[in-house]
Write a structure and sequence with these properties.
The chain is mainly alpha-helical. It has six helices and two strands; from the N terminus they run αααααββα. Strands 1-2 form a two-stranded antiparallel sheet. A hairpin with a 5-residue loop joins strand 1 and strand 2. It starts with a helix and ends with a helix. 15% of the residues are buried.
């Protein structure tokens, strides 16, 4: 089973995943207890996809409480964890802004090259006719 397939299954079976609630620390142990044959590497990958998602980070940024698999409230979310989520989001937004800027610059460069080629072609046509 792929990590994404496992995550889809977790979202179907557990409210904490489906509703994108801040997960209890040690949720991996809860998962292993409920799903004994679970591959740890796949589980860690699925948890990484889930906790790294924009939706989860946004939830964590404002969260006060963590939740067990079934959605039962548990421990508080610390300021450190809220701050970490906020920093992750800021990094993502910064990377996305940089990517879009690079795309715009590349498109502008491409357009400038196209116009240069058009001018060169026009000049070549003009002088080839006069010759």
């Amino acid at each position: 089973m792929s990590a994404r397939a496992l995550l889809k299954q977790l979202q179907q079976e557990y409210p904490a995943f489906r509703d994108c609630l801040p997960l209890a620390i040690g949720i991996d142990k809860q998962l292993l207890a409920k799903m004994p044959g679970l591959d740890r590497k796949t589980m860690r990958a699925a948890l990484g996809i889930h906790t790294g998602s924009m939706r989860y980070l946004r939830a964590m940024e404002k969260a006060k409480i963590r939740y067990d698999l079934d959605g039962t409230p548990g421990a508080e979310v610390t300021d450190t964890h809220r701050q970490h989520a906020k920093e992750q989001l800021q990094q993502r937004f910064k990377k996305e802004a940089e990517r879009k800027k690079a795309e715009r610059e590349a498109a502008a460069e491409e357009e400038a090259n196209r116009k240069r080629q058009e001018k060169l072609q026009a000049l070549a046509n003009k002088f080839s006719r006069n010759g």
